């Protein structure tokens, strides 16, 4: 193993000099390690199979592997990792890859004990391969010492970065806890204020709901009274309609009676005219009798007296007949006025009947509208009662929120 190998240790900073100094890793050690690279390349598949065969036997590690990756991919990654280790080119790129491994382990939740155990397993398998390949015990001893330093350095890098990741996580948790505490405190204050405002608003709303319910109930009572009055008016209109019809019937009967009276008056007038004619004839006859009595002289005096009395009676009869004719004329005039008045009454009744129909329809519409209004008011009452129940529930929830806020505030103070 005396052949010189090209190796180097070249970092951007001196941050890792103490680690290298502590474990005593030098470029001479890297040359010893790199001499085994050709041998290990022949055993990469064997090393990968043995390595992951042991890991998959552990259920916890098997679960992590199957959850975050695939075996074939991990075997390729392991082979590449071994080649990079035995290239022995320790530069900043090499460091970054190891730090990335540490971050991945942290992200998937791989605990350091599993990483150390797995790395120890890999180191043992590589030493076994070297044991079969190195003939000189001294050379084998030097290789074991050198490769152990390389593995230790890798473990230092990975474990230190894992520690840094954990510390960073704890610091972030502390920061988040402080932020959360501040946010909770602000939230508690806001919730307390909101709770008080909500409680006051709910009390005001509850009071308004009660007042509104009282007003609506009064409105409903008044509406029912109005509905009753409208219904009474509607009933009165029906009664008035019956009376109007009765008046109309009576007016028609009276018209018929007046017509009969007119007819009777005409008959009476005919009789009176006949009486007047008889009176005229009787008067003429009495006049002739008086003339004849005068001619008779003394013998006709008695007859003359009778004739004169007949004449007077005829004249009185004629005068009475003329008076009756005058009365009949006046009666005709009055009956004509009655007929005209009855016609006016009949027309007024007709007009009144039309107005009645319109008025009755108006009352009917009022009754129907009041029915709808009362139904709507009942719905409003139900809605207000539901609202009142909701307000009471919100008030109860607000009180619960206030109590919860206070407990949250006390819990926050215990952080």
TrEMBL record:
Organism phylogeny: Bacteria, Bacillati, Bacillota, Bacilli, Bacillales
Transmembrane segments: none
Composition bias, Polar residues: 199-210
InterPro entries: Chemotax_Me-accpt_rcpt (IPR004090), Globin-like_sf (IPR009050), Globin-sensor_dom (IPR044398), Globin/Proto (IPR012292), MCPsignal_dom (IPR004089), Protoglobin_sensor_dom (IPR039379)
Family in the record: Belongs to the methyl-accepting chemotaxis (MCP) protein family.
Regions annotated as coiled coil: 230-271
Protein name stated in the entry: Heme-based aerotactic transducer
Keywords: Coiled coil, Transducer
One biological process term in Gene Ontology: signal transduction
GO molecular function, one term: heme binding
PROSITE patterns tied to this protein: CHEMOTAXIS_TRANSDUC_2 (PS50111)
Alphabetized Pfam families for the sequence: MCPsignal, Protoglobin
Organism expressing this protein natively: Texcoconibacillus texcoconensis
């Amino acid at each position: 193993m005396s052949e010189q190998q090209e190796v180097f240790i070249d970092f951007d900073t001196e941050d890792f000099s103490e680690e290298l100094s502590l474990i005593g890793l030098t470029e001479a050690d890297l040359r010893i390690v790199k001499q085994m690279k050709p041998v290990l390349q022949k055993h990469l598949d064997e090393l990968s199979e043995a390595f992951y065969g042991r890991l998959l036997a552990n259920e916890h590690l098997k679960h992590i592997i199957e959850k975050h990756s695939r075996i074939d991919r991990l075997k390729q990654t392991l082979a590449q990792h071994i080649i990079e280790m035995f290239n022995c080119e320790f530069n900043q790129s090499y460091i970054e890859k190891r730090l990335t491994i540490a971050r991945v382990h942290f992200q998937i939740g791989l605990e350091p004990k599993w990483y150390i155990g797995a790395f120890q397993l890999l180191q043992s398998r590589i030493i076994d391969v070297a044991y079969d390949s190195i003939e000189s015990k001294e050379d084998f001893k030097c290789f074991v010492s050198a490769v152990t330093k390389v593995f230790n350095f890798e473990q230092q890098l990975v474990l230190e970065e894992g520690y840094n990741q954990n510390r960073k996580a704890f610091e972030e948790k502390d920061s988040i806890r402080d932020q959360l505490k501040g946010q909770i405190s602000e939230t508690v204050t806001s919730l307390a204020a909101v709770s008080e405002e909500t409680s006051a608003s709910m009390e005001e709303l509850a009071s308004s709901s009660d007042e509104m319910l009282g007003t609506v109930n009064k409105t409903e009572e008044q509406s029912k009274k109005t509905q009753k009055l409208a219904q009474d008016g509607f009933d009165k209109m029906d009664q008035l309609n019956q009376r109007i019809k009765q008046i109309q019937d009576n007016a028609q009967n009276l018209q018929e009676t007046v017509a009969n009276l007119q007819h009777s008056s005409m008959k009476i007038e005919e009789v009176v005219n006949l009486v007047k004619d008889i009176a005229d004839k009787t008067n003429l006859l009495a006049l002739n009798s008086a003339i004849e009595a005068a001619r008779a002289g003394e013998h006709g005096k008695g007859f003359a007296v009778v004739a004169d009395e007949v004449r007077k009676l005829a004249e009185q009869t004629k005068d009475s007949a003329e008076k009756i004719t005058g009365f009949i004329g006046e009666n005709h005039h009055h009956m004509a006025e009655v007929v005209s008045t009855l016609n006016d009454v009949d027309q007024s009744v007709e007009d009144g009947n039309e107005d009645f129909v319109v008025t009755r329809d108006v009352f009917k519409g009022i009754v129907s509208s009041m029915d709808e209004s009362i139904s709507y008011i009942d719905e409003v009452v139900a809605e207000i009662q539901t609202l009142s129940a909701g307000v009471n529930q919100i008030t109860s929830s607000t009180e619960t929120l206030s109590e919860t806020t206070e407990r949250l505030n006390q819990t926050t103070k215990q952080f």
